[in-house]
Amino acid sequence: MKGGMLIARAKEWLKPTGDPDVRLSASILRRQRLLQRVEPLIPLFRTALVVAGAIYLVALPSQLLGRGHYVSENALQPSQVNTYWNWADVHIADLYATDVEKWSEPGWTSESRAEAIRDAFLTLGLPAATQNYEFMLSSSNETLTGTNVYSIMQAPKTDGAESLVLSASWLSRALDEDGNRRINTRGIATVLAVANYLKKYSMWSKDIMFLISDGYADGTHAWLDSYHGFGQSNLNAQPLPLSTGPIWAALNIDYPHHSFSHAGLFYEGANGHLPNLDFINSVSHILKHTGITPILHADTSLAFLTPSPLARTFPASFDGPTTQLYWRAAQNLAHQLAIGASGRVEGPEGVYGRYRIDALTFFGVPADGPHGFHAMGRAIESTFRSLNNLLERLHQSFFLYVMTSVDTFISVGNYLAAPVLVSAGLTFTGFLLWAADGSPKVPAGAATKGLRQSGVEVRRARPVGKAAAAIGVSHLVGGVMFALLARVDPTVEIPSFIPTSIAFLLAFTPLLLSLALSTAPLTLPPLAPLSSTLKALNLLLSGMIIAVTATLNFGLAVALALLLPLPLLLSSASTSEIRTRIQQVGLFVTSPVGIWLAWWVLGGADGGADAWLRETHAPKLA
Amino acid sequence: MATQTTRVSHGATRLGWTLASGALVHLALALSPLPAILVDRNELTTPITSWTRLQEGLHLTHVLHQSPYSGGSFHHAPLLLLLHFFRSPLASHLLWTAAEVATAWNVARIARGRRRNLVEGEGEQVWDEAWCAALYLFHPFSIGSALARSTSVFNNLCLSTAIAAAVSGSPLTLAFALSLATHLSLYPVLLLPPLILVLNHQSSPPSSSPSTPSTTLTTSLRTTALLTTTAFLLHQLVVLALSHYLTGSWDFLSSVYGTILTIPDLTPTIGLGWYFFIEMFAHFRAFFVGVFQLHVLSYVAPLTIAYRRDPIFAVLLLVGIISIFKSYPSLGDFGIWHALLGTYSELSAHLPRPLLLLSLTLYALCLLPTFHHLWLYSGSGNANFFYASTRRMEGEACVLSSTAQAAQCACSQR
Fold it and tell me: What angle do helix axes B331-342 and B129-137 make, rounded to 10 degrees?
């Protein structure tokens, strides 16, 4: 009996009979029922998206999402060559170091020492030239000047259509006791000694340029702009008399102290641009084979696994290798994300990215041993032998990645989900809010004044023009402030009342504006409240900006994905006075001004977070 | 009667103000640094509309007295070589702004022509003609194209003149303008069949009563078609002869029309063609070029037949489809399409999810320059990145096209 009914129903389903109109209305009803079931789950879904994004971000440092180090470009063959750099060359480097120490004495100007370095290159039989440059800072007459020296070793066997750069900036990233940058004494000596050494060999298929740039990153910036005939309005740089083909890769040497313990790799460019992963992996491979321990940046504690903070509170059994690996990866990841989000150039290697040159800084972390010129020279020789093999630019491996340790990385496919999930959550919420704005469901039991029954939908217009104007004006104010900031002279100490008063102004203007623009939160037709339309459009805009930024600068996208959901998801229109006030305080704290103030109050400018960002860049010698 | 006259004069005043303020905005932006930034943006200019390439052609022709087509980088229509007198920045901006204003005026004329025989439905809103003009004149795509001095602006001008002429029932102006548009970008020739139908509707509007003898209609259609086509062909002959006179050879045929049809210049645009033919093996190329172009052609007959009662809508859809699938599209082509869609403002009440369409466009607009940068400047992406963003753009246009059709369907069923 039962079976027969089932068969009949299946037949009915497969080959429907009866009135098509009835069937249509049945199917519409079915769909409506389904929608009614799903509808209450939608707010959960959007929250789930944002939460999933946050969880994904926390999961990023785990070994599951990362991949092991490998070299994708076959031509590189890292550390597959015999190196011939030897103690005689170390002796020459030592002599050059004495020279550099002499040149860094007080009597020497930028220009005179540049000429001395140029003469050193000329003595080696290499064509060399100097370049003066001048950056005009802000609208005042303040300038930043310097003199670069560079030299070109022509490839002996080819036409030198491509070139490589070995560079050292005059100043190192390491700081001395007074907090000033140290002189990159041995970095410059290394470049000179390597120039003397490389010219003895005839295997080079690419021109090799040796660059001693003045200042820290400014000299490299000016030299690269002139080399590519591309400048910025506030830079006066002499044109370069010597030139060769396009630069494929650059290795920057930063070696201030007499010895070093680890080789710190610095590779972040401006606005989150990264060199090809093959370059980093080849160099770290070569370093290991040379006997030097490579690390990311200069935090030597990350060279080995260290107990995680869990070890302090939980029993030691929690602190297994998995936890330690996670802890190390998280520290490396956070550091890189912060550098990406800050967008600044952190060293000479950062300015090459603009010209599509893969650049890496090789930082000899100051220590009393064990490595010196011998290890450094061999590593450089081996790196240049690998780069010399290239038939194409480095392109085989990833450009979009984050390193979790020297040996592991997360590729774009695995990390992108974190900000994109948050972005999807925001966008989804924006659309929901927009839809709810247009046809609000009146809460049951509300006084409808005979308008209609509760639960019936009505359409109401949204104040899109006003909301768009509010967004546009706030962006305009931001743009004007940015333009004004760019004109502030960075060398002049600004009176402390200016930032405070600007912060005050920025903090309280929105509050006053919101009082002026506020409408009753639960407006009935015909007009939706401005606040919810503004919120919906902001949610959509934020979602879009996070998603688009994620492809350009992962660090910035993550920072936005952490920052934007808080005010946008937690605030909602409310009739309760206390809730409104709490929300206003919350919005203020999570606004850029609030965050900046918190940073400032907590001493971010000299200590705290900023120090964390920079400390590994400028380690002090114990 | 008197109130009607005042309403019309009110409308005319408002239109005048719109056009004047639009021209002012264009000229004010022309003084900003924007034109220098936009002039070589690949979203706004293509190999056949770029101002930089046009200047090269003008220099070759008028200064060096060589054939501009001998170099292989100039693919503009020969009549554009007459723009010799507008080479200075100021003159060019004035000319381009004038063309924009004229186009906006044409859009307003089309809107006015449509409104004459339109019955407003419940909850539907018909935009004022000044609004429609403003939609074109203040559309970021058309402002961008004008500032970049893309010659797509003239294409839009000829196209809108042709449609306005059809709506107001003047076959000779229609043939003249459409022939010029065809000369500039070839694809507008596809609009001839639906435009003839529009013309025919204006001279003898189809009445719903079955008493009208269909033979009369057919005869009038035949006459209109014959007249317009002949005028079009004659004008094409004149234009071609003039082009030959201007350039001194027939080289322009292969360099202009050949380029549009066979897509040898693979400079990335916001369209799909460049990517297909970068990836294509050479021995398949001829076949797929044929498929690519026939695909556009295949829309003409079905759309014209399907919308024979409302042929302006068929024209509108075809303008959109050509913008999507032409070999070298730019944002300017979408600008005129959006403005023409604005003349069907009564559909907006039936348009589901307008915000979704808007945000899709915004995503595409943000991703296009981002992925272009990642591919060609920072080198961290590749051609697939940029192709993905162009597909987003085209996809949005397809969705808009189909929603417009659905809305038209809903609107005509009420």
Answer: 170
Tokens encoding B397: 């246009």
Of the candidates B293, B233, B238, B229, the residue with the CA atom closest to the CA atom of residue B78: B238
One-letter amino acid identity for B89?
P
Amino acid A227: pLDDT? 95
The average pLDDT across A276-287 equals 94
Tell if the CB–CB gap between A551 and B377 is shorter than 8 Å: no
Which secondary-structure segment (H or E) carries A115?
helix A110-123
Digit-coded pLDDT (tens) for B28-46 = 999 999 999 999 999 999 9
Distance CA A310, CA A83 (A): 45
**Residue A556 contacts B where some CB pair is shorter than 8 Å:** no
pLDDT tens per residue across span A96-120: 999 999 999 988 999 999 999 999 9
Chain A's closest residue to B385, CA to CA, is: A551
Strands (E), B325-368: none
Tell me the angle at which helices B152-168 and B311-325 cross, rounded to the nearest 10 degrees.
Answer: 170
| Residue B6: how many other CB atoms lie within 10 Å | 9
CA dist A410 and A302 (Å) reads 18
How far apart (Å, rounded) are the C-alpha atoms in residues A492 and A483?
Answer: 18
What are the contacts of B204-210 at 24+ separation with CB within 8 A? Answer: B205/B117, B206/B309
Q: Would you call B379 and A399 a contact, using CB atoms and an 8 Å cutoff?
A: yes
Nearest to B134 by CA among B14, B6, B35: B14
B400 neighbors B357 (Cβ within 8 angstroms) = yes
Is the C-alpha dihedral spanning B378, B383, B385, B387 positive or negative? positive
Q: What are phi and psi of A146, to 5 degrees?
A: 180, 175
CA distances for B245 relative to A529, B48, B79, B240, angstroms: 65, 21, 10, 9
Please tell me the pTM assigned to this model.
Answer: 0.86
Contact between chains at A544 and B379 (C-beta distance less than 8 A): no
> Do the Cβ atoms of B355 and A547 come within 8 Å?
no
Q: Tokens for A605?
A: 């400018």
- Parallel, antiparallel, or unpaired for β A171-175 and A181-183? antiparallel
Whether the CB of A353 is below 8 Å from some CB of chain B: the reply is yes
Contacts of B140 in chain A (CB under 8 A): none
Nearest neighbour of A551 by CB, restricted to B355, B362, B370: B370
| B374 at A interface, C-beta within 8 A | yes
Amino acid at A509: T
Contact A274 B380 (CB under 8 A): yes
Residues contacting B126, CB < 8 A, separation 6+: B115, B118, B120, B345, B346
The CA distance from B312 to the nearest CA of chain A, in Å, is 30
Report residue A94 CA to chain centroid gap. 37
Residue A128's beta-bridge partner residues?
A151
